[in-house]
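Archive transcription. Copying these from loose printouts into the bound notebook so they stop getting lost. Printout 1 of 2:
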Amino acid sequence: MAGDAYELEVERQDATIILSVRGRVETASAQRLLNDISANLTNGAQKVVLDLSKVDYFDSGGGAVLIALRQRLEQRHATLEISGSTPAIDGFLDLVDQDALAHPPPPTVEPQESLVDRVGGAALAFLDDLRDLAVFTGQVVLGLRDAVLHPGRIRWRETWLYMEQTGLSGVPIVALISFLMGLITAFQAAVQLRQFGADIYIANLVGLSIVRELGPLMTAIIAAGRSGAAFAAEIGTMKVSEEVDAMRTMGFDETRFLVTPKVVALVLMLPCLTIISDLVGILGGLFVAVFGLDLPAIVYLRQTRIALSIWDVGSGIIKSVVFALLIAGVGCLRGFQASIGAESVGRTTTSAIVAGIFLIIVSDALFTVVFHYW
C-alpha cells in the first residue's frame, strides 16, 4: 500500500503478520498509517512483526502509531515485535513509558476524614482564628491610642480618601435603602393600627424602629458589604503581591500605615451615615402617612418629636461606632490572612463580609439586651 510519505508491505506467515514500512513515518501521515495497518490485521493473527529497517524519518507521530498499535493488539490478545529499529528510533521510544500508557494506574482514592478529625480540625482552625483576632485587636487598640495621643502621626491624606470612599460615596445607597425601610415599616404598621384608629402612632413606630435599630443596622450591613470588602480586598492584594512583606522588611508599622487610616475613617463616617439613614427613614414613613393615610405632615413630625428622645438617637450612634470598629477590624484582619493567588483574595473578601455581618448582628443583640435593662 502506498501513501504520500510511506509504503506499507504486508506478508502473512501462518499466525504471524509481517508489516514492512518504507519512507517517512511522521505526524502528518500517522493516522493514515495506523488505519492501513489495522485494515491488514486479521482475527487469527497472534503475532505482528513491524519492520522499520527501511524507515527514513521517524517522529512523534510514529511513536503514537506504535503505542496505539500495541494497545489494539493487546485487546486482540496478540503481540507486537519491532524489528530493524535504528538507534534513533530506539532512543525516541525510550523517552515514552509505554507500559504506563497501556496500563494506567488506578485512580487513587483519598481516605475520608473521620468525624473526629473534621471536628478537631475545625476546632484548631477556630482557635487559630481567635489567636489572630486577639493579636490584631491589640495592635489596633495600640494604633488608635497613638492616633488619639498624637493626631499628627495619622496619615490624614489616606484617611480623608477613605472617608470619601466609605462616607460620601455610600450616601446614595444608604439613603435609598433607608427610605424604603421607612416606607415598608410604615405600610406594615398601617395595616394593624388603622383597625384601631391609631394611625398617628405610625410616627412612633417608624421613628423608634428606624432610630434605634433599622438605621444603624442597615447602614452597618451596607458598610460591611462596601467598606469591609474593599478593605479586605485591598490589603489582601497587597499581601499576595508581597507589598506587606516589603513594608515589614523596611521597618514600617503595617498597623499605622494600613489599618489605622481605615478604622479612623469608618469610625468618623458611619455615625454620619447613620444620622442620614435615620432622617431618610423617617421621611419614608412621612411619605406613607401623608399620601397613604392622609395625615398632615406637621402632625406626623410633631408626633415623631414627642416619641423620640436624645437617648434614642444617641444609642443608635453608639451602636454605629462599635459597628464601624468591627467592620474595619474584620476587613483588615481578613486581608492580612490572604495567602497566595487571586482565589485567596476573593475568599478572604467573602469571609470579611460574612464575618462582619455576623458580628454586627451579635453586637446589636447584646446592645438591645443591655439598653433594655439599663
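Printout 2 of 2:
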Amino acid sequence: MEFRFETIEYDKTLPSLPKHSGVYKIFDIRGKLIVLDKTSNLFERLERYYGERSERVRDLDLREITGRIEYIRTDSTFETLYVLYRERKHYFPKTYRKMRTFRLFTLMKINRKQRFPRIYASRQVKTGVDYFGPFISRGQFTRLKTTLERTFKLRPCLYNIRGNDPHPDCLYFQMHTCSRPCNNDIDRSGYREDVGEAIAFIEGRDAEVERALQQKMNDLAAEMKFEDAELVRRRLDKLHRARHEYKDTFFAVWNFNYLVVLGSDSVSRCRIAFIRRGCVAGFEQYEVETLKEALETDLHRFFNTPIDRDSVDAIYDEFCRVAYFIIDPLQSVDLLPVHDFEDMPAQVLERLQQRKRKRNKIQTS
C-alpha cells in the first residue's frame, strides 16, 4: 500500500498548498527530515513557517534551512492518523511509539498452546496466540480476568502446570477457586473446554455456551444423573451472574475484519479502508453509482489473498489504531464488520444514505 506525497522544491517563497487536511514533511538543504506532522489546513500550517514574520508570530522560521517540502492530502481523521503513523514508523522505527501518534491499548492474551492456559495482559502480538481487546485501562482488564477465573475456574497461578504435580501450598488450590489441573482434578480436554467457553464469554457469545450447557443438563437429567445435571445448572447460573456483573465484550484480533467507511471530498464518492485481522490492508476510493460491483471485487482481493506480514508489531499497532475509533467514535467514521461479501455493498450504501439524511437535516434545521 503506497501513499504518494507531492513534492515542492523550496525557492524562498511561500509554498502554494491546498487549504485541506493532510500530512507534511519538511527537509533541510542537506535532505534531512526536520518536520513530520499532520494538520487540518496545509496552507495555514506552512504559512506559519514561511509567511511574513512579525513580533507576534512565534512559530519556527524555516525559510533559511528548508530544501524541499512533501505533502499528501487526506479526507478523514482516520486516514490522516494512519499516514502519519506509517511515516513516523518509517523514519523513526525505534521511537515512533513514543510520539503519541496513536493510543496503545492492553490486550488479553490466552495461549492455547499451553497445556493448561492462563490469562495474561499483553502489549504485543505473536502468531498462534489468541488476543482480545481493546482494554482502555488495566483495571478493566483485571476485572474481566477475575470474572473469567471465578466463572470458568481458570487457574490464576504462575506455576508451570503439567498435571500430577499438586501445589497444596497454593492459596487457589486450598480454596478450590480454580479447577486444580495440577492435582488432576480436571484433564486437559476438560480444561480446554472451559477455556473455549471463557473466550466465547469475552466475545459476547453467551448464547452458544448457554445452549451447550442447557443441552448437556437435559441429557444428564434424561439419563437420571440428577447430581451431575445440578452441577451444570449451577454453572449456568454462574454464567448469568457473571454477565450481569460484567457487560462489556471485546474483539478477537485474528477475527477483526472490518470495512471503515471514511469521509470523502465529494458526496458522489466514498473512501473505504479494509481491515483484515486487525491490520489496515488498503484504502480504496469509489464512485457511489458503481460501488456495488467494484467493492465486491475488492472484498475478495483484500480478504481472500494470502497475508504477507513482515512484523507482528504492525498487527498490534494497527489494531490499536483502528480500536481508537471504536473507543472514541467519530461521526465521520463508520466501522462495518465483514461477514457476507454480497451484503457489504448494501450496508455501505445504507451508511452513506444515513449520513446524507443527517447532513440534510442539519442544514434545514
